[in-house]
Amino acid sequence: MATRMVSLQARQLLAASLGLVAFLGLTGYALDRAFVETASSGLRQRLENMAWAVMGGTELLRTGDIVPPETPQDPRLSRPGSGLYVTILADDFRWDSESALGRNLPLSDALAPGEQRFEGPIATPNGSLYRASVGMAWEISETREAKLTVHVAEEAGVLDRQVSVFRRTLWGWLGAAALLLLGLQILVLRWSFRPLRRVVADMEQVTAGNAERLDGAYPTELTLLTDSLNEMIDVGREQIERTRNILGDLAHSLKTPLAVMRSELESGAQGEQLRETLGDQVGRMNEIVAYQLSRAVTSGRQTFAAPLPIGPCAEEIVTSLEKVYAAKNILCEFDIDASARFYGEQGDLMELMGNLLENAFKWAHHRVLLSVRTMTIAPNRRAGILMTIEDDGPGIAPDQVDRLLQRGVRGDERVHGHGIGLAIVQDIVKAYRGELQVERSRELGGAAFVVRFSPSV
Fold first, then answer.
1. 314-343 tens-digit pLDDT
2. pLDDT, tens only, 106-150
3. pTM metric for this prediction
4. Which of the 8 DSSP states describes residue 326?
5. CATH value of 307-453 in 3.40.50.360, 3.30.565.10, 1.10.760.10, 3.30.230.10
6. What gap in Å lies between CA 309 and CA 127, rounded to an integer?
7. pLDDT given at position 252
8. Distance from C-alpha of 123 to C-alpha of 229, rounded to nearest angstrom
9. How far apart (Å, rounded) are the C-alpha atoms in residues 418 and 281?
10. CA dihedral sign of residues 70, 75, 76, 79
11. Is 50 exceeded by the pLDDT of residue 268?
């Protein structure tokens, strides 16, 4: 059972959604960590500032007695169990804020003068705490000083609640943003893929026979695709039409030789006359079949044909012709653009050049010239070629061109041939949507056959 492929729109939506979720997730995580660190740093700064404020509000008498601050720095210090606690320690002195009454708190460590600490969360029987501690030494006299330690502690729940509120707000807004962006993404993807859906719909119309080509207005990115599809459609129809015409032409062409043979047999002719008539008609039928088969195997223009270099094919053909026409001592010259390429079947190229070069060798006195040039219209378009085959023979009169291009007509009945070579060339050129022109060679003076295959997609 064939696996159904996921649509391009679904793939794009899935990939974009995964990217969106990953981006928002990383963004949320980064913002969460930044807030937690900022909140922790703020808590530490606040507790340390309160410790210094408590230290500043504490008085040291000359007798060595310590007087705690009369006014608490925060109202919570006056409320038992409020979550904010202060302890002042000296050698034989300890003072706890009213909020620490009845609480078992880890606020008994003495710090060396100038030492500062921030710790937390510290587990206690009353819950976790964050603690800031400051150590200081006060000089009572030249020989006596008092060492004080101030501890300020706050329940971790205060920071946890701040972080919890921030997280709820953060992820709520990020979730809403994700849904909004996802919806917007779906709309953008549907809008972006609308031209592709239109191409599919138009192609279905062509397949159903309701349209001949893809004639819609498509974005620039799809123009190459739609042009290629249109060319494939046209080539396919031309192939079908050409095959149908070939079969019709073959049937029609064979009627006359068959009728002649039947008439001869029914007339009672015998002997040499019968053999001569049958031989002529069989030869004629053989020519007709060969010609129609040559037309049938012509592949024609192909959208995705591999480019064929022209030079090697030309050398192979000329090597054979030089052997056939060795007695004429023909000099064949090449002027072929190295970048020139034929987009089609090698058999078609060999048939095209073979017939034209053979015709040139047949009529030339001493020289034949094959020239091939590249024709381009844009860097991203397939290049065309301009092929010219010239000879120094008698040439062709302008009023004889159309007649010579007809099937079965020879320029001189005394010259061996079937008269179908140029007709085959015409069929190949037409199949590849090219142009064939017969002119007078300016350089050699004889005939010049010019074949033009225009640039295309």
1. 998 888 888 888 888 999 999 999 888 898
2. 888 888 888 888 888 888 887 888 888 888 887 776 667 778 888
3. 0.50
4. G
5. 3.30.565.10
6. 86
7. 62
8. 74
9. 14
10. positive
11. yes
Cα–Cα distance measured from residue 317 to residue 360, given in angstroms and rounded to the nearest whole number: 12
Beta-bridge partners for 333: 369
Segment (H or E) for 371: strand 367-375
C-alpha–C-alpha distance, residues 110 and 97, integer Å: 17
Helix (H) or strand (E) holding 50: helix 8-57
Token pair of 90 as six digits: 């000296």
Angle at 427 between CA 424 and CA 433, to 5 degrees: 145
DSSP conformational letter for 456: B
d(CA 13, CA 191): 13
| The two three-digit tokens of residue 351, written as one number | 């048939």
pLDDT number for residue 295: 61
Select the more confidently predicted residue: 298 or 140: 140
Q: Judge contact between 420 and 287, C-beta under 8 A.
A: yes
pLDDT bin (cut points 50, 70, 90) of residue 413 is very low
In the block, tokens 């320029």 appear at 411
Instruction: Give the pairing type, strands 435-440 and 116-122.
Output: unpaired
For 233-256, what is each residue's pLDDT tens digit? 877 777 777 777 677 767 766 776
H or E segment to which residue 173 belongs: helix 156-192
Cα 295 from Cα 291, distance rounded (Å): 6
Whether omega before 121 lies within 30 degrees of 0, making that bond cis, reads yes
The chain-wide mean pLDDT, for the chain, equals 81
Q: How far is CA 337 from the centre of its chain?
A: 32
- Contact predicate 366/345, CB 8 Å: no
For residues 387 and 180, give the distance between their C-alpha atoms in angstroms, rounded to a whole number: 61
Count Cβ atoms below 10 Å from residue 106 Cβ, excluding itself: 15
Q: Which tokens is 2 given?
A: 């064939």
